[in-house]
Amino acid sequence: MNIQLLKSKVKQRSSIAITGSKSESNRLLLLQALYPNIKINNVSNSDDSQLMQNALVSKEKIVDIHHAGTAMRFLTAYFSIQKNRQTILTGSSRMKERPIAVLVNALKDLGADIEYIENEGYPPLKITGKEILKNKVTLKADVSSQYISALLLIASCLKNGLEVTLKGKITSVPYINMTLQLLSQIGVASNFYGNVITVNPQTDKIKSQILTVESDWSSVSYFYSIVALSEIGTEVKLSSYKENSLQGDSVLVKIYKSFGVDTVFEKNSIRLKKSKIVDRSVSIDLDLSNAPDIAQTISVTAFGLGLACHLKGLHTLKIKETDRLVALKTELEKLGAEVSITNNSLMLKTSGIIKENISVATYNDHRMAMAFAPLALKTNINIEDANVVSKSYPDFWKDLKHIGFNIK
Ligand SMILES: O=C(O)C1=C[C@@H](OP(=O)(O)O)[C@@H](O)[C@H](O)C1
Ligand SMILES: C=C(OP(=O)(O)O)C(=O)O
């Protein structure tokens, strides 16, 4: 489905409710499978969380998690400890290009039985579940934090607990902290000191409890972009959010101040307000190694406002749903931007024009579609394969219509 966004103006005041964080949901769903006493409120309605739920109840030998990176990584660890069961864990053709050797090697070092079915180092995997007794492992921490979270999520179920030593510069750190904080919320003790994380084996029963997932901050990024590209005074209210988030992408509050957007925390929601025009001489200079998922949104906002932008710490973008650095450069340039990229950075020059009626390709990447949509506040734009948004935010186009976007 390709869609046409006609040049739009959003309502001066509007409200949106977004469902739970996909990252928190996928962690809690796995913990719930290990500790069924846990109940979860406000689970994400994303495809990735639906796939995670289906995989966890599936009795089939082949489990297909399509494009869901967290599901692939977390379930590799989960199925490794499901005794008396062999699982073929597979995914989309892109998933078969997303590396998993760092996690598989760590699990095998601990004693797990995992084989590659097609290419060495990549899904699909044949996992024969067994008891893991070893409790010390070292792995590279600069490729994806999801490998580390995967190990931590099963750690408390291992007979002897787990001590994980991290090598290299740790990437996407807030996601590791999110895992540890959720473990702590359910009653599992851990310790993260220097480059070593320890999780104790869980000997006491996990208490019955209901956990409420905070709504998804990565999804809010598109509304920050929309407000940044709107007139002074435009407001969007979003629920359900809190000031002390477990999600690293809540750094949006700070980042979008540079784009003239203020955030007010209310009882159970946030109100984004365009409060000032940003001077064209401002240059956005950020290291996003702790918040990689908002790199596309920020680059497109900067382009929409004609600002220069230099983003660093983007090495993980090359192995996500697509090579997001190449995709961003290609699509921004179609619209008239001047962009240069390296393996871990993106540089955008100031610009004055946005070409009209350009068709933006989305490369099976939900964030490409959602990051470029706000440009409809400046010009007519087409988004190809617009239904890719369902990976994390199935209601995205409905919510955009609701706040005033003119979608054909
Ligand atoms: O643990 C998680 O929930 C995630 C970790 C990040 O991945 P990397 O650690 O691979 O950067 C992030 O990009 C992804 O969307 C979700
Ligand atoms: C990278 C992402 O997801 P995953 O790695 O879980 O596929 C994302 O949602 O931007």
From TrEMBL:
Its EC number is 2.5.1.19. Pathway: Metabolic intermediate biosynthesis; chorismate biosynthesis; chorismate from D-erythrose 4-phosphate and phosphoenolpyruvate: step 6/7. Residues 58-400 form the Enolpyruvate transferase domain. Phosphoenolpyruvate binds at K22, G69, R98, Q146, R324, R367, K391. Pfam families: EPSP_synthase (PF00275). Its main location: cytoplasm. The active site is at D293. 3-phosphoshikimate binds at K22, S23, R27, S144, S145, Q146, S172, D293, K320. It is found in: Cytoplasm. InterPro entries: Enolpyruvate_Tfrase_dom (IPR001986), Enolpyruvate_Tfrase_sf (IPR036968), EPSP_synthase (IPR006264), EPSP_synthase_CS (IPR023193), RNA3'P_cycl/enolpyr_Trfase_a/b (IPR013792). CDD domains: EPSP_synthase (cd01556). It catalyses: 3-phosphoshikimate + phosphoenolpyruvate = 5-O-(1-carboxyvinyl)-3-phosphoshikimate + phosphate. Keywords: Amino-acid biosynthesis, Aromatic amino acid biosynthesis, Cytoplasm, Transferase. PANTHER family: AROM/DEHYDROQUINATE SYNTHASE, PENTAFUNCTIONAL AROM POLYPEPTIDE. Belongs to the EPSP synthase family. Monomer. Catalyzes the transfer of the enolpyruvyl moiety of phosphoenolpyruvate (PEP) to the 5-hydroxyl of shikimate-3-phosphate (S3P) to produce enolpyruvyl shikimate-3-phosphate and inorganic phosphate. This is 3-phosphoshikimate 1-carboxyvinyltransferase.
